[in-house]
Write a structure and sequence with these properties.
three-stranded mixed β-sheet, transmembrane helix, alpha/beta, membrane, 2 domains, 6% strand, transmembrane
Length: 481
């Protein structure tokens, strides 16, 4: 049968990525924000309303909240209700598959059909993105970002799919704050084609007036589409208030600049060097747009490590295009045998089945070494109710297990805490001068923190607080009234 012979090595590579994703999610959840995102989505489904103010924490109750990720949270919550943990895995497999397919197509076109380099690029993209594979709205952000890259590249090469950009933006602006990158990408392409430009190896080609007007119309429609969200024009302020917040950038790990002592950033540095050397050694001209991409997304990554996923999606296709000019090998074509490919698929399928998540409840994937599982069970068993000053990374788990009987002090929605609560949290948890007075102004009933934070030492000297539970992961203090 002809369909049997059509299975090619690029299909095997994509299937391998999906199996890798399954394997990655057969382990406990390490991302602490998954819990509150899922909780928010379930609450939106139950109430039929997108929240406009904080109702989860006792420290910030009633504070305005721009719930900019509500659509992605509802999708995750709906699939969790329908299929449990397996539903979450399935939707992320679909998202990853779409990202990989579009990225492969762009690389294949850029390298003029070089299968080897296209597969290598997609694998490298997967390596970088694997640091962010989790059940959070940013997965949809990566999907829409890749779709914009795909459509814009097609437009550069004579295929017009601009009509889809406003619809994608409508979904993007309601799913993740990275929607602003869609407008920025379009701005890059527009500026790069305003005039003819030649300087050394750099080139820019002016678009004809008709093509430029059509693009401007699409850009204007995309900007208008950003207003179609529950927060209307207020959504425009969100990306800038978050990025510009010094307290967030200095204290929240995913927003910090890359620490090249960590292996994931060392891998990024090697891949960045590979892209740069490919451009330097390649005889091919460098388009203005590609040069802007490389500079902009390298700078973004150096500003915040979480942006290296955007760098990989935007810049690896550029790198392999030039690498294929230096070394145009096509090794995969020589081993592209249907029988071998089917054997590989069969092996991968067995690996996927063996690693398919066993449990349907997300609670079974709460790592007792990462979350205060024992302490929370103690709270539930003893029916302890009230306000809990918590470690930042534990709020989502507390909300998932204990809300509304217990409310945490702070959670991962850093944008609503940056003006007051987050600075106070840092002072309290680190037991800085005046920390106890600040703590008591919030009047918590319980304190749940890791045993190694300085706050423990401060509390042990206070007669108003007593340790009622402890294990290697968490200490639980109760205020004695």
């Amino acid at each position: 049968m002809t369909w049997i012979k059509k299975l090619q090595i690029q299909h095997v590579a994509l299937f391998a990525l999906l199996i890798l994703f399954i394997v990655g999610h057969a382990k406990p959840i390490a991302d602490p924000d998954v819990w509150w995102h899922l909780k928010t989505g379930l609450d939106i489904i139950d109430t039929g309303q997108v929240p406009r103010e904080d109702r989860y924490t006792f420290s910030n109750m009633g504070h305005e909240w721009i719930a900019h990720e509500w659509l992605a949270e509802v999708i995750y919550a709906f699939l969790y209700k329908a299929g449990g943990y397996h539903g979450l895995v399935v939707i992320n497999i679909i998202v990853l598959g779409l990202i990989s397919t579009m990225a492969f197509h762009v690389c294949y076109r850029r390298t003029k059909g070089n299968l080897t380099w296209s597969v290598i690029a997609v694998l490298f993209i997967a390596v970088i993105l694997s640091n962010f594979w989790t059940f959070r709205p940013h997965m949809f952000g990566y999907l829409f970002f890749t779709a914009y890259l795909f459509i814009l590249y097609q437009y550069e090469n004579g295929q017009d799919y601009l009509i889809f950009l406003p619809l994608l933006m409508l979904l993007w602006v309601n799913s993740h704050g990275s929607y602003i990158m869609g407008i920025i990408l379009m701005g890059f392409h527009l500026v790069a084609h305003l005039v003819d430009f030649h300087l050394g190896r750099y080139r820019g080609k002016k678009w004809p007036a008709g093509k430029r007007k059509k693009f401007l119309l699409a850009l204007g429609t995309v900007v208008l589409a950003t207003l179609l969200n529950p927060n209307t024009y207020h959504i425009w302020l969100y990306p800038f208030t978050t990025v510009d917040a010094e307290m967030i950038v200095e204290n929240i790990e995913e927003w910090m600049a890359p620490n090249f002592h960590h292996i994931r950033f060392q891998v990024f540095a090697l891949l960045l060097a590979g892209v740069i050397f490919s451009l330097l050694l390649s005889p091919k001209k460098i388009s203005v747009n590609d040069g802007v991409y490389l500079l902009a997304f390298t700078a973004l990554t150096m500003f915040g490590g979480r942006n290296m996923a955007l760098f990989a999606l935007a810049c690896f296709p550029i790198g392999v295009e030039h690498a294929s000019e230096i070394w145009p090998f096509g090794g995969l074509k020589t081993v592209n045998f249907a029988a071998v490919n089917w054997v590989l698929v069969a092996v991968l399928l067995v690996v996927g089945i063996l690693n398919w998540p066993v449990f349907a409840s997300i609670e079974d994937y709460g790592d007792p070494q990462e979350y205060p599982v024992g302490a929370v069970e103690f709270i539930i068993q003893h029916q302890l109710k009230g306000r809990i000053f918590n470690d930042y990374n534990w709020a989502g788990y507390i909300l998932w297990k204990c809300f509304p009987e217990n409310r945490p002090f702070i959670d991962g929605r850093t944008d609503i805490f940056v003006d007051r609560v987050l600075p106070d949290y840092v002072k309290i948890i680190e037991a800085r001068q005046g920390a106890y007075e600040i703590l008591m102004q919030y009047d918590p009933d319980y304190i749940l923190v890791p045993p190694d934070v300085p706050l423990n030492t401060l509390l042990k000297d206070k007669k108003d607080w007593r340790l009622i539970y402890h294990d290697p992961v968490a200490n639980l203090f109760a205020q004695g009234r």
